[in-house]
């Protein structure tokens, strides 16, 4: 398993992104459930994992070619390069995190 000393040429595609949504973008639109969430490290798209019924994170990669994702699950620090099918744990840089339920609640109050 690669460690922090391992690099991938696609690390250069990683941007300082924040999750675009609080759940899988496509599943939210469809009203469908998901298993776990992944974030695109190029654009911030949030998609469901390949164990979910629709695998929207993989679909996003196939549609865009954005190579790197990471988990949006609490306590997980890994990333994945779709191009090289390589797993990095931990990733050698800070990763985006989901907003807490409390932050989402206060964010909704501010938009009203």
How does this structure look, described?
- There is one protein chain.
- The protein is α+β, with helices and mostly antiparallel strands.
- The chain has one domain: 2-Layer Sandwich (Herpes Virus-1).
- The chain contains three helices and five strands; from the N terminus they run αββαβββα.
- The chain has a five-stranded antiparallel sheet with strand order 2-1-3-4-5.
- β4 and β5 form a beta hairpin.
- The longest helix has 10 residues.
- It is globular and about 40 Å long.
- The N and C termini lie far apart (about 45 Å).
- The N terminus is likely disordered.
Q: What is the straight-line distance between the termini?
A: 47 Å
Count of distinct strands: 5
Helix content: 10-25%
Principal-axes geometry comes out as globular
Biggest beta sheet summary: 5 strands, antiparallel
> What Rg, in angstroms, do the CA atoms define?
14 Å
Q: What is the CATH C level class, in words?
A: Alpha Beta
Q: pLDDT average, as an integer? A: 88
Instruction: Please tell me the CATH architecture by its name.
Output: 2-Layer Sandwich
Runs in which pLDDT lies below 50 for 5 or more consecutive residues are 1-5
């Amino acid at each position: 398993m690669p460690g922090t000393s391992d690099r991938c040429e696609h690390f250069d595609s990683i941007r300082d992104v924040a999750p675009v949504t609080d759940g899988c973008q496509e599943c939210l639109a469809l009203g469908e459930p998901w298993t776990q969430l992944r974030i695109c490290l190029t654009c911030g798209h949030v998609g469901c994992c390949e164990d979910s019924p629709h695998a929207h994170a993989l679909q996003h990669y196939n549609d865009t070619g954005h190579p790197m994702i990471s988990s949006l699950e609490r306590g997980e620090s890994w990333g994945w390069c779709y191009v090289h099918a390589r797993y990095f744990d931990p990733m050698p840089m800070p990763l985006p995190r989901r907003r807490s339920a409390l932050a989402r609640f206060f964010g909704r109050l501010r938009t009203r």
